[in-house]
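FIELD: query
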Amino acid sequence: MVIGDIEKMVTVGLIWGATNALMRRGALISDQQLQNKQSSTKNPILKTLIDWFNLILVWQYSVPFIINLSASATFFAILSHTPISLAVPVTNATTFAATAVFGMLLGEETRVGLTLFGINLEF
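FIELD: result
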């Protein structure tokens, strides 16, 4: 294992956690925009594709999504020389905690007690 891998794993987890919360906010914005539009499409597959395309056009979703994907590429690079039994738990625990914290910072309703309990179970 290379020196600094733990720091990289924690950083990836923090980025994933922050972008998860931001993507959720972007998805909510996209949902509000879709509710204001009337869809004339009856085909469920075409409707799904149009909805997905509209989601990608919302910058509040697409920018965090691109950052999230960049962190995923970094994670796979870390996996090339770090045991998966270390990388996955560290990154997932950090992601869980960061998603909860960033969600609270963004004003999402959160059951703080249950969230803290879950974070403690992870660590």
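FIELD: remark
The radius of gyration is 17 Å.
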